[in-house]
Amino acid sequence: MRQVLDTVWQRRGTSWVWDEEARNQVCSASEVWSLRQLLQAVGNWPNDLPSNGGRTLVVAGLEGGLDLLAPDDAEAWLGDAIKAAILAFQDEYGGEAALIFWLPLGQSRLKVQTASDAVAWVCEAPHRGSHLDFGRILWGEANEYPQEILLREGSKPAGLFHLRIT
Q1: Which of the four pLDDT bands, split at 50, 70 and 90, describes residue 141?
Q2: Terminal CA-to-CA distance of the chain, rounded, Å?
Q3: 8 Å CB contact between 56 and 97
Q4: Mind spelling out the 3-state secondary structure of the chain?
Q5: Strand 56-60 relative to strand 33-34, pairing
Q6: Structural domain spans, the chain
Q7: What's the whole-model pTM score?
């Protein structure tokens, strides 16, 4: 998978970040929105986003939402409600703002298959052992587009970045 050392993910596109240092670069904890707030904002977006000089929205709660659902229901919800919110966000801000999903456990939950760059979501109890086809659902397996976020050369990935989901 390609990697990005640039800070573009802090200003544009959609990211899934699990590294606390990375999250702290764009927002304080008090600026993080809940997943409910994100879904309620669709169609009624604020003029100024709460983080990074008005250019970034950080959202927590995706992990919990996915864990509450059976895998088939989680895939449907991810593909319908969450993807629709991402697309609405992109349209509202013309690709000139960043939507970041804060996933504290994301490093162990998002698995990249090195041979194909396919991204899967690893389910937890009570559906441990199941996987959601995260990349196919959200970006249609355009696997050349997501990139691993690196904070510095040689560091472990801090998250995944996708410039524009279609």
Answers
A1: low
A2: 19
A3: yes
A4: CCEECCCHHHCCEEEEECCHHHHHHHCCHHHCEEHHHHHHHCCCCCCCCCECCCCEEEEECHHHHHHCCCHHHHHHHHHHHHHHHHHHHHHHHCCCCEEEEECCCHHHHEEECCCCCCEEEECCCCCCCCEECHHHHHHCCCCCCCEEECCCCCCCCCEEEECCCC
A5: parallel
A6: 3-162
A7: 0.96
